[in-house]
Design brief:
Strand content: 15-25%
Number of helices: 10
Helix content: 40-55%
Largest sheet: 2 strands, antiparallel
Distance between the termini: 48 Å
Number of domains: 1
Order of helices and strands: HHEEHEEHHHEEHHHH
Low-confidence stretches: 2-21, 195-200
Structural class: alpha+beta
Mean pLDDT: 87
Strand order of the largest sheet: 1-2
Length: 200
């Protein structure tokens, strides 16, 4: 127990000393917090590296937004590739928001708000889910109902409204009961991939 407390204290110290800007960037505190955001120029809370969240819905692809076409929703800046997308977003912003703050959905399964690549995503039941790479997405898709239930549980119970860096540090030390390492998940994905042809 003492060792775990020391690890948490050490992680917190590193965050405080080296992560002040990201701490503020990903925690705007106006209803969308934490979010997978970066600071770029005058856009202090730029969602998903400036990618156009509407393009996933209307064009089925990821596209970079333009700095000149943007909207601010609850303190977070969204960029768009065309004016029509900005208009759609402004009419119904909640419809186009990435789930779980735009973080890797598979990370949220473990209570860890981390990662999230604009080019690795999936639409599930009309909602946008971002992943931190193909491996993370494949692991999540092994059991969508179970993983969605866990992600919703940890998002609603711990992550939403928290500081992403402190939450991440906590759950990297005090891991959830069902935690699996990246290597373990990759092995499970590989095992399922090998087993699938044999079952057909």
């Amino acid at each position: 127990m003492k060792y775990a407390i020391l690890r948490i204290a050490s992680a917190a110290a590193v965050v405080v000393l080296t992560g002040c800007a990201p701490l503020m960037t990903q925690s705007p505190g106006q209803g969308l917090s934490p979010v997978n955001a970066v600071s770029e120029g005058e856009d202090k809370h730029l969602m998903l590296f400036g990618h156009d969240v509407v393009s996933y819905f209307t064009e089925g692809t990821h596209k970079a937004g333009q700095p000149s076409i943007k909207s601010v929703h609850k303190g977070v800046t969204f960029r768009f590739s065309k004016p029509e997308h900005k208009a759609l977003f402004d009419q119904a912003p909640e419809k186009y928001l990435p789930q779980f703050g735009g973080y890797c959905t598979n990370g949220i399964v473990y209570g860890i708000p981390w990662g999230g690549d604009a080019d690795t995503w999936k639409m599930i039941d009309g909602k946008l889910y971002i992943f931190g790479g193909k491996g993370s997405m494949d692991a999540f898709l092994l059991d969508v109902p179970r993983n969605m239930q866990l992600a919703s549980k940890y998002w609603n119970g711990e992550v939403n409204g928290s500081n992403a860096f402190f939450q991440r540090s906590k759950r990297m030390v005090l891991r959830v009961p069902h935690y699996r390492s990246g290597a373990e998940l990759a092995a499970e994905v590989a095992g399922k991939s090998v087993a699938k042809p044999a079952a057909q």
